[in-house]
Design brief:
Layout (H helix, E strand, L loop, with lengths): L6 E8 L5 E7 L4 H9 L17 H8 L12 H15 L5 H21 L1
Antiparallel strand pairs: 1-2
Helix pairs in contact: 3-4
Length: about 120
């Protein structure tokens, strides 16, 4: 389900966790349209807003093609790997984490490079 509507950016509020709350105003909506909006509350999605120019079909298709599963996790794969390596290092903190991280990621890279040589 998606919402594609004209609207006006009415305001924003900075939040203490460094996120931003955006507030939009649309034209009048039917009960069905409001129900659709209500069904999307607390879901994750992509927000695209631009000024007076109208949206063309190619832009709508491009927005529909965005892979939302990339954003299902709040952290990227590399951030997750770094966090796991930090936990491993933390169990036996020998030396500097930066050195440990560099050596471990190099070991992982070399492992997959060796698979290419086979």
């Amino acid at each position: 389900m998606k919402i594609l509507t004209a609207g006006q950016l009415d305001g924003y509020q900075r939040r203490k966790d460094r996120t931003v709350s955006l507030r939009f105003i649309t034209q009048e909506k039917s009960s069905g349209e409001v129900a659709e909006i209500d069904s999307l509350v607390d879901t994750f999605g992509i927000l695209y807003f631009r000024g007076q120019e109208t949206l063309n079909r190619d832009e709508v298709d491009e927005l529909d093609a965005i892979e939302l599963d990339l954003y299902d996790e709040p952290k990227s794969q590399s951030q997750r790997l770094r966090n796991v390596l930090f936990k491993v290092w933390n169990e036996n903190p020998v030396g500097d984490f930066k050195d440990f991280y560099r050596k471990e990621t190099e070991r992982i890279i070399q492992h997959y490079k060796n698979k290419l040589d086979v």
